[in-house]
Write a structure and sequence with these properties.
Elements (H helix, E strand, L loop, with lengths): L4 H10 L12 H10 L27 E2 L3 E6 L5 H10 L16 E5 L5 E6 L4 H8 L7 E7 L6 H12 L4 E6 L8 H9 L13 E4 L8 H15 L2 E2 L6 E10 L3 E10 L2 E2 L3 E4 L2 E9 L5 E2 L1 E2 L3 E8 L8 E5 L2 H24 L5 H9 L5 E8 L2 H13 L6 E9 L4 H9 L3 E5 L5 H10 L3 E4 L2 H15 L3 E18 L3 E14 L3 E6 L2 E13 L2 E2 L2 E3 L3 E6 L10 E10 L2
Parallel strand pairs: 2-4, 2-5, 5-6, 6-7, 18-19, 18-20, 20-21
Antiparallel strand pairs: 1-8, 3-4, 9-10, 9-17, 10-16, 11-15, 12-13, 12-17, 13-14, 13-16, 22-23, 22-29, 23-27, 23-28, 24-25, 24-29, 25-26, 25-28
Length: 566
């Protein structure tokens, strides 16, 4: 402000704040001082660095159609990768030149019709879940691969749950149709029990019988994907700074940090300055899935970029910023935030039952999500039934998964993505899952008695129901005289006319039977002594917290509020 420290100290003294030149002031006081000196104030918080980073909202006129982003999921050995390879061979651009030079985890296929589809290869569900946990909805459509000879398997069910939790439409690809024992009807019936009703059965889910090895019906699968994409009406604005998500990243010995990113909006150019998570850098080079250099990448295009300062985590959002200083500022702020979070995470886990209860009480969460793991199928089903019975009209109970066996990393990731509690019945977590749960703050609760599970979940549900307050009337006091006391302000000399008055109880001040103040008692005295309560027929002195407009003849109504569990 170009003001002398002595002047500032003087101003503070006038305001009743005794401070030295080196003392740190709270922001409210600082604001008042600045205004005293005739300056205008603009309060900024540290997180303001991230303001405006999300870019502007797009107008409909600027949007143009983009390629659908498809994730292929399914059980191990049901032919996910061979199906991807077969689909990639249908790519017009790839020709017969021989596959791809590098596996980048995401590819774009151009069809003879000129349409394009972007595929994301998920090793298991790891990347998919971690992206969902960060709230990045990368996938538009999920292709669920089920082997025609094998049917629905545990991981298929898990994939269905992940897809449903991400609210992505599912297309079922019944693979291995070239095998003699392939039975597509059985697959369709098995899917019914997981709430996937295919079109043949009168539902809305598309299903295609394919064979990856014989290249059978791949065109039909692509048609199904394009049809679903048309229904979703996927559009983005290519004429703006690029935004998107990191799909995977690694440290390459020759090239340094390499990140595979999916551009979701805007166009990425070589030489742009990007911030991905807590890392930043200038895009030195961009490569497509065939290892060819690219200068620009539009919406729904997966590319590998070189030039970041470090390796960002999968699922982190990336954005293009205007200059290096902004990028550095955002990066430093996020790094600091991560450090603080890690420090806080060491002391307090995020998903513990107690915190869930506080979040619920604050009305922030109206759903209890649970992942159930038990030693036998019977127990898993029994616990699921018990837990679902505890639902209340205000609070939903959602069982994400109820399976048998020990708790694995993918259970922990599923729970993290949906803010769920893991209920373990007579089973334990693997050491990796335990470490992951500790790191991500996922609450794993071990039980061996079924009714304890019910009690705990009931508590969770009850905590989510908005508690009701009930008021208990305590008594009336009439103000007979008002005294001015230097230290405490105004004190009312009262006579208790009905009931009793307690210290710390709620009070309403009535003047001509109209409530003019509601608050609480700050002092209750009989003669010189502080007392806890005064009964009817006695006199006492009352003073009110933060209220001094007292007059003789006013009535004081005292009450207590108690919380009534719903």
């Amino acid at each position: 402000m170009a003001a002398r420290a002595a002047d500032v100290v003087k101003t503070l003294m006038r305001m009743g704040v005794m401070a030295t030149a080196t003392q740190v002031l709270d922001s409210d006081t600082a604001e008042l001082v600045v205004q005293e000196f005739g300056h205008r104030v603009r309060r900024v918080s540290e997180s303001d660095v991230e303001q405006g980073i999300d870019g502007v909202e797009d107008v409909d006129a600027d949007l143009s159609p983009r390629a659908p982003v498809v994730t292929i999921m399914g059980h191990v050995d049901h032919g996910k990768t061979s199906l991807l390879d077969a689909l990639r061979a249908t790519d017009v651009a790839a020709g017969e030149a021989g596959g791809i030079t590098q596996h980048i985890g995401a590819y774009q296929v151009s069809l003879p019709s000129g349409a394009r589809i972007t595929f994301i290869d998920t090793p298991g569900h790891e990347a998919f879940t971690s992206m969902r946990a960060r709230g990045a909805s990368v996938t538009d459509i999920v292709v669920l691969v089920v082997a025609g000879d094998d049917g629905v398997m545990p991981q298929t069910i898990e994939a269905i749950k992940h897809a449903k939790a991400a609210h992505a439409p599912i297309i079922v690809a019944i693979n291995k149709m070239d095998k003699t024992d392939a039975n597509p009807t059985r697959v369709r019936q098995e899917l019914l029990s997981h709430e996937i009703v295919v079109e043949d059965m009168g539902g809305e889910t598309q299903d295609v019988e394919v064979s990856a090895t014989k290249r059978m019906n791949l065109d039909k699968l692509e048609e199904a994907i394009l049809l679903q994409a048309e229904i979703l009406d996927l559009r983005a604005n290519p004429d703006r700074a690029a935004e998107g998500s990191v799909i995977e990243s690694r440290l390459d010995r020759g090239r340094g940090p390499v990140a595979t990113i999916l551009v979701q909006n805007g166009t990425l150019h070589q030489g742009d300055i990007v911030v991905a998570g807590a890392e930043w850098g200038r895009v030195r080079a961009m490569l497509d899935d065939k290892g060819r250099q690219m200068k620009v990448a539009g919406p729904s295009t997966p590319v590998e970029i070189l030039g970041l300062g470090g390796v960002p985590s999968a699922g982190e959002p990336f954005v293009v910023v205007e200059d290096e200083s902004r990028a550095r500022e955002i990066s430093e702020f996020r790094t600091r935030k991560l450090r603080d979070k890690a420090a806080a995470g060491a002391t307090a886990a995020r998903g513990t039952l107690e915190q869930m209860l506080t979040r619920i009480a604050a009305g922030a969460q109206k759903e209890v999500a649970v992942v159930i793991k038990a030693d036998v199928q019977g127990s898993a089903e029994a616990i699921q039934a018990t837990v679902l019975k505890l639902e209340h009209e205000e609070v939903k109970v959602r069982v994400l998964n109820a399976t048998v066996g020990q708790i694995t990393e993918s259970d922990v990731q599923l729970a993290k993505a949906s803010n769920a509690v893991i209920v373990a019945f007579n089973v334990r977590a693997t050491s990796q899952a335990r470490e992951l749960a500790q790191r991500d703050g996922v609450d794993i609760r071990y039980y061996s008695i079924i009714y304890q599970v019910a009690d705990d979940i009931e508590q969770l549900v009850k905590g989510k129901i908005a508690p009701k307050y009930r008021e208990n009337f305590l008594g009336y006091a009439e103000i007979r005289k008002v005294f001015d006391i230097t230290k405490t302000g105004k004190v009312a000399g009262c006579m208790i006319t009905e009931g009793l008055v307690k210290r710390g109880c709620g009070v309403r001040l009535l003047r001509d039977n109209v409530v003019i103040h509601q608050g609480e008692l700050s002092q209750l005295k009989r003669f010189k002594d502080d007392v806890k309560e005064v009964a009817r027929g006695y006199e006492c002195g009352l003073s009110f917290a933060g209220f001094n407009d007292l007059r003789e003849g006013d009535m004081v109504e005292c009450y207590e509020s108690e919380l009534v569990p719903a």
